[in-house]
Amino acid sequence: MFCLSIFVRRLLSSLLVCLGTSTTIALAQSAAPAVATPATDSPIRVLLVPQREITVVAQTVGQVRQLGGELGSSINQGAILVAFECGENEARLRMSEAELESARQNHDAKLRLQKLDAAGEVEVALAMSAVEKARAQIELSKVQLRQCVVAAPFSGRIVKLHVKPFQVVNIGQPLLEVVSAGPLKVKLNAPSRWLTWLKPGSRFDVLIDETGRSYPAVVSAINGRVDAVSQSIELEGRISGNFNELLAGMSGNARFSAR
């Protein structure tokens, strides 16, 4: 009877040890971190930006005579954006043209006198120099007159006005800002681990907050450097198609298909 009790106690001890080991293994397995998989279907914030945008600045000192449009106006390439009051420059041009005509007549007279041995080589050369100086002055006046009119370098829209008609501006002062027309670019940052499959030409969808609609897009450029802090890579994409309701500055979410 005593031997049987000893056997039973040893059997129970063995069972408890086995149960404790199994519980420890199960807890360890449940605590082990799962291997992360790329969540390519998670949304990423995006921003719509124009293909080109510029800030037009004044190249001359003068008074604004005319603006080519109001805020939000559409403009064509070559259209007048800003025109300055340039009566003084126009007067300088007419003076230079008169000086050129006078210098030419003087040079012609010196040439005739030279044939009569009444003028020397130095006098003829000086008269010719006066002609060239007058021509250079005319070119300078024409350049200054061209700066009195600022033309649109590309078709687009006026997005900001810094001046008003009749305002006097200085050289380098901002006049207005213009963004290009046409398809917009999509700017976003994706996890750098996606580089294993992300390539130019990869397709994704963009859900724009302001319109509530989804638009097809494609990756057009990938930055050559990964951000070491955020472990992300900067991307550029383009919207596939023309959608008039989309404007620069709109934002939303990009969603890539799972790979």
Percentage of residues in strands: 25-35%
- Cα end-to-end separation: 69 Å
Task: Give the SSE order as H and E letters.
Answer: HEEEEEHHEEEEEEEEE
Q: How many β-strand runs? A: 14
Quick structural overview:
The protein has 259 residues and is an alpha+beta fold.
Fold and architecture overview:
The protein is α+β, with helices and mostly antiparallel strands and 259 residues long. It has 3 helices and 14 strands. The strands form 3 sheets. It has a 6-stranded antiparallel beta barrel with strand order 1-10-13-12-11-14. A 4-stranded antiparallel beta sheet has the order 2-9-7-4, with no helix packed on it. Strands 6-5-3-8 form a 4-stranded antiparallel beta sheet, with no helix packed on it. A hairpin with a 4-residue loop joins β12 and β13. α2 packs antiparallel against α3. About 10% of the residues have low confidence.
Blueprint of the fold:
Layout: H1 2-31, E1 44-49, E2 53-57, E3 62-67, E4 74-75, E5 80-84, H2 87-115, H3 121-146, E6 149-151, E7 156-161, E8 168-169, E9 174-180, E10 185-191, E11 203-208, E12 214-227, E13 232-239, E14 251-256
Antiparallel strand pairs: 1-10, 1-14, 2-9, 3-5, 3-8, 4-7, 5-6, 7-9, 10-13, 11-12, 11-14, 12-13
Helix pairs in contact: 2-3
Which features characterize this protein?
single chain; 259 residues; alpha+beta; four-stranded antiparallel β-sheet; 3 helices; 33% helix
